[in-house]
Amino acid sequence: MKENTASSSTERINRFLVRCGIASRRESDRMIIAGRVRINGELLQQPGAQVGAADRVEVDGKVVQAKTEYSYYVYNKPRGMLCARKDSRDRPLIYDKLDVSPSVQSVGRLDMDSEGLLILTDDGAFTQALILPASKVSRTYRVRVAGHLELETLESLRRGGINMGRGDSSAPWDVLVDSETGGHSWLRVTLQRGRWREVRRTLEACQHPVRRLLRVQFGSLSLEPTLAPGEIRPLKAREVRALRHTVNTLPSS
């Protein structure tokens, strides 16, 4: 889906740079502090400046403009590919196989060994709103793990607070056992934050290493069975509206 979006009022420079597809808000603040951004020829050194439609914004000496039309896709990410534009180790990248604009990026990421639903867009504000922890947009995974989980382990996962290493503790999960076969179990896990490898790290800490991990839902969007691994399709207008409805920081359209 492509969607027209226009802004008539002033906004903080970091939000503007997000809409331009330059960087996240935090990264934009760093660029400003580093002296890489100018408004109407004036060098910015502190974040917080306001910018309007008539202002001229430059990043690294190049004029940038906010997009007024955005693209939105759902992609069934295959296992064994990185959600990155480049990689120093020359590993396979999802964008090597996708015919999308260079400004299109993933909403959050799936690690190389994970698969399933991935939203792609060049709408930076849309991306930021969906992945902000305060938005509490749920993500659901089907997870195949080694062993059978005891009731006590399931309750620990639901309470949260499990030491994942690196000083991190797991958030409370909504977790169910779908099936148990042989020496493995299939779990259905829903969480509301996208911290780095949380599912894998938490289950590893519980002595149940992950053998397969598929994201099957992100907010209101589910991965349909007809979308094969490696396939991509534009999101429908109603799907974008439903995703916008999950957070209160985005206008409906």
- The rounded distance between the terminal residues' Cα atoms is 12 Å
Quick one: overall form?
elongated
Give me the CATH architecture of the largest domain, please. Answer: 2-Layer Sandwich
Radius of gyration: 20 Å
Percent of residues in helices comes to 10-25%
Short description:
Helices cover 20% and strands 31% of the residues. The chain has helices at 13-19, 25-33, 124-131, 151-159, 198-205, 237-245; strands at 2-4, 11-12, 37-39, 42-43, 50-51, 57-59, 62-64, 69-77, 105-106, 115-121, 139-146, 163-165, 168-169, 174-181, 184-191, 210-218, 221-222, 232-234. Helix 1 (13-19) packs across helix 2 (25-33).
Can you walk through the features of this model?
The protein has 253 residues and is of the alpha+beta class. The chain has three domains: 2-64, Structural Genomics Hypothetical 15.5 Kd Protein In mrcA-pckA Intergenic Region, Chain A, CATH 3.10.290.10; 69-134 and 220-245, Pseudouridine synthase I, catalytic domain, N-terminal subdomain (Alpha-Beta Plaits, 2-Layer Sandwich); 138-218, Alpha-Beta Plaits, CATH 3.30.70.1560. 20% of the residues lie in helices and 31% in strands. The protein has helices spanning 13-19, 25-33, 124-131, 151-159, 198-205, 237-245; strands at residues 2-4, 11-12, 37-39, 42-43, 50-51, 57-59, 62-64, 69-77, 105-106, 115-121, 139-146, 163-165, 168-169, 174-181, 184-191, 210-218, 221-222, 232-234. Strands 1, 8, 9, 10, 11, 14, 15, 16, 17 and 18 form a ten-stranded mixed beta sheet that branches. Strand 14 and strand 15 form a beta hairpin. Helix 1 (13-19) packs across helix 2 (25-33). The protein is elongated and about 65 Å long.
